[in-house]
Amino acid sequence: MTTPELLSPAGNLTKLKIAIEYGADAVYASVASFSLRTRSAREFSLETFKEGIDYAHSKGKKFYVTINAFPFNGQIEPLKRHLQTISQMKPDAFLISTPGVMSLAKQIAPEIDVHLSTQANVMNYLDAKIYHDMGASRIVVAREMNLKDVIKIKELIPTLEIEIFVHGSMCFAYSGRCLVSAVQSGRMSNRGSCANDCRFKYELYAKNPESGTLFRLEEDPEGGTHVMNAKDLSLISHINDIVKSGVIDSYKIEGRTKSEYYVACATRAYRMAIDDAMTGKFQQEKYEYEIATLKSRGYTDGYLVSRPFERIDTQNHTSSLEEGTHQVHAISEDGEYIKCKYKITPNQAYEIVAPLDKSIKTCDNEIGKIYNENGKFWLEFKQLVSKKGKVFDEIHSGNENEIKLPINLPKFSFLRKENL
């Protein structure tokens, strides 16, 4: 059985490199205004986008371009120009939501594969076959599908690649088909500018029309009333069973607008889970521990393994964001210096998180020490010395000074501490 692809988000060029360093087989990203994540699309210029595609290919990885917004008539001509420009950069596939844009892409760049976005809401083999016949080499099935139906599609259309979301934000609506944001703020969800209104706190009232009495309904006087706040998807516990099904070609992590640590940790955890499942060494608790370090809205395993009406735990009624078990304190992009993300002080032990295929050396010198304890590597600074030689008692996020490491670490290593 072939090892399935791990597909990670690339919200900018740095996150793209992090995803690849931490084990992604492919990344997906966008530029300009034809994606469902216009905020991350603005993180790229055409020059850095081309650089990202070339970087992925230099590492033997694939790069998929998201062009999955729902265009209006006035956008068709600019969309044609966009497809022509991006096709010259030679990405591996376009991720598209609509038949019309699929047809346009095939006319302009027939040599580039088309992947059908989850926004197309494919739930059955009839729809899957039509899109496959139209030229889609891969379909990202709707998040609302269950594994049995995915297996059925693969059985009936074996030449069709199937991609599923395994981790990240869930939409309260039907795979993004939502107008709440447009109604409340004029921001169109399916044109890339969703305001996440489902995460807001709402005040609900009950009124007696006869007496005019008005009652305020609330779940939490401090936290507010969250009536549409879906928990985040996490299928990390089920990767072994999904791999054994043999029908999923690509495992996709959501999160182009999320942090560098999110990209690193989620990619690393799913890389371990997939590889261990392939070799019969699956250790569920290990991956769950890593995923729990991330900030989230709480986790649910969604609908792939359970039907919607069987679930009562898919929403977070308390908060739109929960702290993870760990706080990220720093990142080292070059392996020689760190940039502070929270707080760094001397004589504190910080756990080192690095790409799986990289080694960490121990040391003890005037800058600090790195040691191995209980299978993890830790770093303690003795002094905080900047690139310019300035010494700090402590350093906080917002301070742009890069701090010297006692010895070089793998590029894109993180320092973290458990929240007590």
From TrEMBL:
Transmembrane segments: none annotated. The keyword Glycosyltransferase does not apply. It comes from Campylobacter majalis. This is U32 family peptidase. Keywords: Hydrolase, Protease. InterPro entries: Peptidase_U32, RNA/ubiquinone_mod_enzymes. It holds the Pfam family Peptidase_U32. The keyword Hydrolase applies.
